[in-house]
Amino acid sequence: MSDHKNKALQDAVPDVAHHVLRDGHKIPQLGFGTYPMDDAEAEALLPEALWRGYRLLDTAVNYGNERGVGRGIRHSGISRDDIFLTSKIPGRDHGRESVRRSLEGSLRRLGTDYLDLYLIHWPNPGVDQYVQTWQAMLEARDEGLIRSVGVSNFLPEHLLRLEAETGEMPVVNQVELHPQYQQEALRAFHQEHRILTQAWSPLGRKTDLLQSDWLAEIGRRQGRTPAQVVLRWHVQSGIVPIPKSSNPERMAENIDVFEWDLTDEQMERLRMMHTGISGSGFDPAAHEEM
Ligand SMILES: NC(=O)c1ccc[n+]([C@@H]2O[C@H](COP(=O)([O-])OP(=O)(O)OC[C@H]3O[C@@H](n4cnc5c(N)ncnc54)[C@H](OP(=O)(O)O)[C@@H]3O)[C@@H](O)[C@H]2O)c1
Q: Any idea which residues are catalytic in this one (predicted)?
């Protein structure tokens, strides 16, 4: 893309507001998911996302696209300092000794010397190494390789154990969450402990969420699409969604959720869409992902 077009796009994009994490670092209120892009797709699409205003990027060792994400960031011409970059440690690298090697691999592939946020991808309670992993992540943070440390797919019992054994809770827990699967009890726990909730599959991938008549109706009244209604619901609920799209028009659609509001009645309608049925069917108490 020419610099001229890049500049024109950047002038037109909405400003994404920020939250402040318990550790004092700022995090954008909406981000960009990169699963299941491969390196080539990530390299081509990350500049498109950044030019449309996304600044929080979500990757993981297990997505196999960290090189492409790093190249895409560099191709975009946007400064690394202006980007909030997240990666995740896989189950096979859990344990006091392997965290450093895994983290250094992520940094090398991404072409950066720090992560804004590093997450334990799954607790893998059967392996029972998440506490040692967390301890090593806290040390890497204290050395400056990571700004904020968090987890993904953790249940309250896992979070409480981290605190009991290391004295420190994560600042973020990234979990499956959308209007049909609202995780209200977990969100209340997060609020009590000042843990920010990030939502994966925020648009309900693998569900029929976006086909809902209720969403269509609210969208008609707001002059918005069903996906925008869902993403506005996340933002207005204080949840940070990380929608993935490989389509530049949908990238622009998904980030345009900051200059309008859902009414109280519309928020209540969305609250009533909860079915408790997860799209993935993964239960963190039993799911093991290496
Ligand atoms: N921590 C974890 O365990 C975990 C697990 C899963 C995912 N994640 C992260 O969360 C991110 C998002 O989750 P996800 O990819 O599972 O689900 P998602 O963002 O809810 O849904 C992505 C799907 O929705 C489509 N889509 C995007 N925008 C749309 C729109 N405006 N209208 C209609 N369809 C639209 C995309 O297709 P197009 O690409 O064709 O637009 C894609 O098929 C992932 O990319 C990954 O970074 C984390």
A: 63 (proton donor)
